[in-house]
Amino acid sequence: MIFSRMLGMLSDDLAIDLGTANTLVYARKKGIICDEPSVVVMRTDTKKVIAVGAEAKRMLGKTPANIITIRPMKEGVIADFEAAAEMLKYFINKAHNRKSFVSPLVIIGVPSAITLVEKKAVKEAAEASGAREVYLIEETMAAAVGVGLPVGEPYGNMIVDIGGGTTDVAVISMDGIVYSKAVKTGGDKMDEKIIAYVKDKYNFMIGERTAELIKIQIGSACKVEEAERSIDVNGRDLISGIPKTVTIHEAEIRETLREPIGVIISTIKSALENTPPELASDIVDNGIVLAGGGALLRHLDALIRYETKLPVVVPESPLTAVVMGVGKMLEDINLLKRIAAD
Questions:
Q1: What pTM value is reported for the model?
Q2: What residues make up the domain containing 69?
């Protein structure tokens, strides 16, 4: 342990939120130093990596046949090990002090429903990318730490992490997860629903980036007393094959997102039903905390509050909750040892 701490003083140890949509990297004593899309672009013949992260995402839907765009993470787990290893290598090399002779200790946030095989794949990918030591932290626990919940106290805290590939719901008490449930529904599923709706309703094809833009600009979980919004989007007419512009309205997208939002709310209710009574009473007082990019969907907190009759809190920066929590582990090795997922 002492030797490990001495090595830590000589290296830039890293905390990583390896997300389906975005990967965030936190360096010890520096904070968040990297926030880029979880995307890799490589050649199909030589497997040579052309771009990773933000540069790769700009190439989505624009590459020739011999170049493919890969999302290494799907539904919260590694779907392409080779691409994931390349992506981790890129982020670790970008974040780590290249002048250091000591490889970094790396802590990675992972979904609570991850299997032993998937845990092994994540660790091997990180080790292949140059990490000297790898720890895994469940994302819900990391998010709870990141938003400042008293995870070590004998109180019930509920955290809902709505990521790109999954939604993780957990009840936490005394540095442990008392109950958790994960569903493969998140921001990506919402984007897929938007693409399918626009295709069916308008005979109009849009890409992932446009669907995400629609969700961000006019997506909402429920109707409130305010002006409805709309957005003009560019795409391809499926009948004529000619590019054109279509106007999409907020009410359409709200209806389109009803199903994935319903899955998320059902998962929260299921977790509440399975929470021990004493901890459930704490949640009545403390409320439900939302984290992840999905927490930013307009009025989602209001809809969850209406459906559960409980207080719902959205922290100041839900997108960074996981990486900030994992980052705190770099400063508190004892906390890391208590709650590490492996």
A1: 0.88
A2: 2-142+321-339
